[in-house]
Amino acid sequence: MKLLPLDTPEILELVTSWLIQKENYQWLDFGNGRRIVTPTLLKIMAQRETHFLRAYTSDRDDTPIGVLGLNSVDRIFIFGSATFWGASGEKSFRNRGHSTFASSKFLTLAFRDLGLHAINTWAVDHNPSLRTIERLGFRFIGRQRQCHYIDGRLHDRLLFDLLASEHRELDEERWRRSESSHREAVYEERLVQPG
Fold first, then answer.
1. Which fold does the domain 3-169 belong to in CATH?
2. Which residues pair with 121 in a beta bridge?
3. Which of 27, 56, 63, 192 has a 20 to 30 A CA-CA distance from 8?
4. By mean pLDDT, which of 17-21, 22-26, 95-99 is the weakest?
5. Alpha-carbon distance values, 104 to 31, 39, 56, 162, 167 (Å)
């Protein structure tokens, strides 16, 4: 798995095509309610120090399958903070741990290379990405009530943060073994239960 900068027109176009899909943009907010990212905005974001963006690949080849980002990057040591977000692009790779491992590597870069002290993130209540946030070690710190609008309904945002001292990059091999054992246990439990 690789983390690729958004530095070619092809990658920028691909990532933009993912971010304009409702199944992705409905969960995002790039400030002032802006959810859809245009190619021009994405290119500007990729060039500014207040943003840090990477496309991630599968372990099969170098084809990008998702995007990760930090917004509001503040590299001043006193603060040293940013807001983390991500989106799956290639849907056939979902639910296989790719975004979790890419996010773990990405956070390592953010803490080590950018010198950040704290990274925060949020997810709309009931968003499937909450599992990834928890696996990465983020801690729940609060709730913003009824501040996110999807399909005519207001939803809460759950707030999380992670300190550099708390981050542990995931060991892909060990994690895959533990996930496999968990799935096998759940399968066996279902076989034992009647009905």
1. Aminopeptidase (3.40.630)
2. 160
3. 27
4. 95-99
5. 25, 26, 11, 12, 8
User: For the segment 34-46, what is each residue's pLDDT rounded down to a tens digit?
Assistant: 788 888 999 999 9
Residue 92 or residue 163, greater confidence: 163
Residue type, 130: L
The identity of residue 134, as a single letter, is E
Cα dist. 98→52, 63, 118, 182, 192 in Å? Answer: 19, 13, 23, 18, 31
Render pLDDT for 7-16 as a digit per residue (tens, 0 to 9): 999 999 999 9
Positive/negative CA dihedral, 91, 66, 167, 140: negative
Total count of residues recorded for the chain: 195
| Cβ within 8 Å of residue 159, ≥6 positions away | 120, 121, 122, 140, 141, 142, 143, 144
Checking DSSP bridges between strand 139-150 and strand 64-74, what pairing results, if any? unpaired
At residue 46, the pLDDT reads: 92
